[in-house]
Design a protein that fits this description.
There is one protein chain. This protein has 226 residues and is of the alpha+beta class. The strands form three sheets. A seven-stranded mixed barrel has the order 1-8-7-11-10-9-13. α5 packs antiparallel against α6. The radius of gyration is 17 Å and the shape is globular.
């Protein structure tokens, strides 16, 4: 696979995080959003970091949500928007598995293939934020702010299992021609009545997760009928 020289394409993994299921403080609902730093090399299988857990497997985890990547830059943006929670908005605090700096939603595209240590992964969908973000940080409105701005990070599927550690390089090794960035993805999805051609092109991007293919197909069908 040829290296595609568009956007930020390489950097260093600054943090890896995994966690177990526990009770959310305050209401007791099960959650695995409280991740802990991983020390040393970690095995990555087809469903992510070996030993990591998800509380609700209907909406988290699985092969198309194997690893969650969240930029450090977004923690800083959220801290500026919600200063009362700034002390808790640190690497790992949104339940991410991978933390980096220098790569954000504007730099990555659906279908991108990255090398992470000896692991090969493909960006297959953005993360859709849920109630656990507000419950974790105790601030109303944070989930909506993250959703509206399209800054919840993204998920990888694992193409080739292997080992990864903090300090390993991540590098873009393949990109689908004309694939949309995640910024563009959310522009289309959030539009009131986006052009059908845009939705169809988004649905058909190689590598897009099957759940998003279905959502986009349903929206296309509704817009055609209405």
């Amino acid at each position: 696979m040829a290296l595609i020289s568009t956007g930020n394409r390489a950097g260093t993994i600054t943090g890896l995080f995994a966690g177990s299921v526990q009770a959310m403080p305050g209401d007791g609902r099960p959650t695995a959003i409280f991740k802990q730093p991983v020390i040393g090399a970690m095995a990555v299988g087809l469903e992510g970091l070996v030993g990591d857990a998800q509380a609700d497997r209907k909406v988290h985890g699985g092969p198309e949500k194997a690893l969650h990547h969240f930029p450090l830059e977004t923690h800083a943006r959220l801290a500026a928007l919600f200063p009362e929670a700034a002390a808790t908005l640190v690497a790992g605090a949104l339940g991410e598995n991978i933390s980096t700096s220098g790569i954000e939603e504007k730099d990555v595209c659906i279908g991108d293939v990255f090398a992470l240590g000896s692991v090969r992964v493909q960006l297959c969908q953005p993360r859709t934020p849920c109630w656990k973000i507000e419950a974790r940080h105790g601030v109303d409105g944070m989930t909506r702010a993250v959703a509206d701005a399209g800054i919840a990070g993204w998920y990888y599927r694992v193409l080739e299992p292997g080992m990864v550690a903090v300090g390993d390089r991540f590098e873009l090794i393949d990109r689908v021609p004309e694939a949309p960035t995640l910024v563009r993805f959310w522009e289309i999805v959030h539009a009131h009545r986006p052009p059908l051609a845009d939705l169809e092109a988004l649905r058909d991007v190689p590598g897009l997760a099957s759940n998003w293919q279905s959502k986009l197909a349903q929206r296309i069908d509704w817009l055609r009928r209405n």
